[in-house]
Specification:
1 helix; six-stranded antiparallel beta sheet; globular; mainly beta
């Protein structure tokens, strides 16, 4: 997978058919990562990678020394949360392994065969495998080896203790509290234990939000994000 003439900030790429049943092992061969990378599964193919129905290995931001697992250091991103740190990837040459068991409702990630972690995954809906490209040099190759080729540690992790994903509140951009007046009267007593950014939306369809009120702007970023004013993500 490449997109040498990419013009958008990023392009999400999903498999044509989802995973519906059984156990499956996939490998994402990261021949080149130019900036950031997510590899995983999503139950809502219209919203990836940061939404409440995504489970992914976040590769980290290339060249960043940040220890923030939201937007710098590699991590498990699941159910709208940056959950636990994983090993960082290099810009070239690493392989993310992903074992999905729809019967058990579990997903396991490894890096170059080394177990990183496992957590629960939705198994009542089909799951699409996804990745994305963000720069013109990005190069990702998806392979599906035999289940018998999955690392033994990943197979054992399916029946072991799973990483607990914190309970989620409203999703990214979802309404926290409705307001009928201006932002000066808007405040939020919603607390999910994370430092979230809240923004006022007037309900204009042009901004992508249909309900006026206070919305979560991005519950991945804490109160002091690794801010780059030239990064189009912000």
């Amino acid at each position: 997978l490449r997109c040498p003439e990419i013009r958008a900030d990023h392009i999400n790429v999903l498999t044509r058919e989802p995973i519906r049943r059984g156990a499956h092992y996939f490998e994402f061969h990261l021949h080149h990562i130019g900036h950031e990378q997510w590899c995983g599964v999503v139950a809502d193919p219209m919203r990836v990678p940061r939404n409440l129905h995504t489970w992914a290995y976040y590769a980290g931001r290339m060249g960043s020394a940040s220890d923030c697992i939201a937007n710098g250091h590699a991590a498990l991103h699941a159910m709208g949360r940056a959950v636990v740190p994983f090993e960082n990837l290099r810009p070239e040459g690493d392989v993310i392994g992903m074992l999905v068991d729809m019967t058990l409702g579990a997903i396991v990630f490894d890096l170059n065969g080394k177990l990183q972690g496992a957590c629960e995954v939705e198994n009542e809906k089909p799951l699409w495998v996804f990745t994305h490209v963000r720069t013109s040099r990005d190069h990702v190759e998806l392979k599906k080896p035999s289940l018998q080729d999955a690392p033994p540690a990943s197979m054992r992790a399916l029946s072991g203790a799973l990483i607990e994903v914190p309970p989620v509140g409203p999703g990214l951009g979802e309404l926290v509290r409705p307001f009928e007046s201006d932002f000066s009267e808007a405040s939020s007593d919603y607390d999910d234990g994370y430092d979230d950014f809240y923004t006022w939306r007037d309900g204009d369809d042009n901004d992508g939000y249909s309900s006026p009120g206070l919305h979560i702007h991005d519950d991945f970023y804490g109160s002091e994000p690794d801010f780059d004013p030239y990064d189009s993500d912000y």
